[in-house]
Amino acid sequence: MSPNLGSLYSYTAKDFSGQQTNGVLESDDLQNFYRLLKERGLFCIEVSEKRQSVQTVKSSSKKLKAKDLVIFCRQFNVLLMAGVTIIKVLDVIYQQTESKQVKAVVLKVYEMVQKGDLLSEAMRKQGDTFPEILVNMVESGETSGTLERVMDRMAEHFEKERKLRTKIVTAVTYPAILSVMAVAVVGIMLTFVLPTFVKMFADSGVELPQLTRILLSISNALTSYWYILLLMIVTLVFVGKTSLKTEEGRIRFDRFILNIPVLKSTMIKIISARLARTLSTLLSSGIPLLTCLEITAKVLGNKFVSDGLLNAKEDMSKGSSLSQALRKIGVFPAMVYSMISIGEESGSLEVILDRTSDYYDEEADVAITRLLSIFEPLLIVVMAVVIGFIVIAIALPMMELSSTVK
């Protein structure tokens, strides 16, 4: 669907048999719209023009959110099960969705399917809007005639991924806010509160304790050279972002994350859940295992492990089993290798992977909760200790001043 045409026409029409149908059609003008409708064997009853905004078109180039993907797949599954055609399903989704991004991309897919493209072809032409796993699953569903089952499976897949991502974001948000607040409080106390009291002590002739002098030196450095500190922070952020954009930098960072003792176990469980769930979902539609590995490597969320998975694919093409190839990556729990090996031997790899993904989904959820329960109190204790030192640094001279007055 080209955004250059500009005009969208929502219509109600009847075919030769008298059956009524609704739809959306893009055309240069109203005259051309009637011509296109006539070519489809439809007689217009009602038509209204809609304009497609530039903002809406631009938004469609972005990846769809997990929530939108869940709704998209759920609606597709329900309507296909009810015997509705793909064209009509797309029209219903377009009419019902409140997301401008979804409207724009569904409209493009709708027009392409109307012109003869398969649904998977139209989705693939949207660039990164639809995940590769969804496009490949749809293509497989079209070939096998099980598109409604594929959409149900994908809705479940994206729902689990959305819940996991939400859990991770929730776990990170509170400590991040707490850290920012701690830095802000300490900064205010060092740059405003402490100097005020120190000036009062100096005017009274009180000798400052060693702790107070140390904190005062830090305070003076912050107030006198704050621009250097700011420049250092900006430089570090810039260098970090630039490094993460390179493949080598990303691999090093992701490997470093997996070597942090506190995070290692949790991250491995999250990656294991994604690996098992994605492979199981793809295998359920009859997609070749090597293709499954290539697609799965793109959704693990860790470049180091993803590269290892691509190497595993190469090993498998040379005759290795999946369990043997994965062992070379060296990050997955022993249970993952054992379960995959059992699945390969029994010929039930898809089912075994599905059960394994459920297990590690639960384990990841527990691990994230446990990590949060440890990190939050620890952060509060650190914050209390730092603020406590500042309070003591202020209190000691005050006690000295009080005894001098007496």
Task: Report the CATH superfamily of the domain at 261-368.
Answer: Type II secretion system (T2SS), domain F
Shape: extended
- For the CA atoms, what is the radius of gyration? 30 Å
The tally of helices reads 17
Largest sheet: 3 strands, antiparallel
How far from one another are the termini? 87 Å
CATH class of the domain at 261-368: Mainly Alpha
Q: State the assembly state of the protein chains.
A: single chain
Share of helix among residues?
A: over 70%
Residue-averaged pLDDT: 85
Estimated share of beta-strand residues: 5-15%
Output the CATH topology of the domain at 261-368: Receptor-associated Protein
The arrangement of helices and strands along the chain is EEHEHHHHHHHHHHHHHHHH
Describe this structure in words.
This protein is mainly alpha-helical and about 400 residues long. Among the domains are: about 1-50, Ubiquitin-like (UB roll) (Roll), CATH 3.10.20; about 260-370, Type II secretion system (T2SS), domain F (Receptor-associated Protein, Up-down Bundle). Helix content is about 75%, strand content about 5%. It contains 17 helices and three strands. A three-stranded antiparallel β-sheet has the order 2-1-3. Strand 1 and strand 2 form a beta hairpin. The N and C termini lie far apart (about 85 Å). The model is unreliable at about 1-5 and about 50-60 (pLDDT under 50).
